[in-house]
Amino acid sequence: MKLHIRHVTRYHYSQPLLYSVQSLHLWPSGNACQTVIDWDLRAPAPLFLQPDGQGNRNHSFSLLARPERNLREIAITATGTVLTHGVADFVDAGHLPPPGVYLRSAALAEPHPRLALWALQAVPALVAARSRGDQPSIADLLALTEAVADKVRYRKGSTGVETTALEAFDWELGVCQDQAHVMVAVCRSIGLPARYVSGYFHAADEPELASHAWTEVCIDPEAGRWLSLDVTHRGLTDERHVRLAAATDYTACPPVKGLRRGGGEERMSVDVRITPV
After folding, report:
1. CB-side exposure of 99: number of CA atoms within 13 Å?
2. DSSP annotation string for 140-187
């Protein structure tokens, strides 16, 4: 599927902005899952490309505004076309971090004994395979995906960007970010490397999911083979998914993150539009 994407982030300020520095994960990379046909990223200051250590394209900019400019709004715009291949089972490129990196704890996706115990009850075949040292089957990981979706029901507005996997697990509700974090944390709790993925999802009847999150689980560490799973949609990712970045959790690859001086109260608006070509 060929998808055209336009992603606009606007910051609105109640007082003049004096200084802003922003880090952006808004440039998808080509891989087995997708081919980037064209892409453009615009910001109110020159952009600098900085590899982030996890294989993502990270840009940054700094903006120094004089008070007399009365700058009260800045916009960051990413546009481009991506051809998706519908591939959910793939091997990492050789320059990417080894799978063991994604066993470590992260602020929003921390392994926990209670998550391991829950996995034993929810998907005993998967945990038994791990205890024998066997690699997980696709069927067992799909069963885990279903179990997480049942445990953490999708409810918009129920959590925030700082909600941890264990909090969402205990509250039994969240959005796609929380479902992905719980999936990642459960996998790490039973010894499976897993990473959080941010990206886009095309569905005319689910515009709120245009900005989306899912999970990649390593099913063969020696070969660097990964399986891409979407808890929100209870299955493997497909041609509707466009991958932006993957990391240990959301805090390591948010689309936009920054600091500022001045500006007073800040309000952010995000508009993501995806159109089949």
Report:
1. 21
2. HHHHHHHHHHHHSEE-TTSS-TT--HHHHHHHTEE-HHHHHHHHHHHH
Report whether 141 contacts 122 (CB < 8 A).
no
Per-residue model confidence (pLDDT) at position 129: 92
Sign of the CA dihedral 186, 192, 198, 202? negative
For the question of whether the overall pTM of this predicted structure is more than 0.85, the answer is yes
The answer to whether the beta carbons of residues 80 and 36 sit under 8 Å apart is: yes
Cα–Cα distances (Å) from 18 to 10, 143, 197, in that order, read: 16, 51, 33
Q: Give the pLDDT confidence score for residue 94 in this predicted structure.
A: 82
Number of H helices, E strands in the chain: 5, 16
Calpha distance 239→34 (Å, rounded): 9
Residue 274's identity, in one-letter code, is I
Low-confidence stretches of the chain (pLDDT beneath 50): none
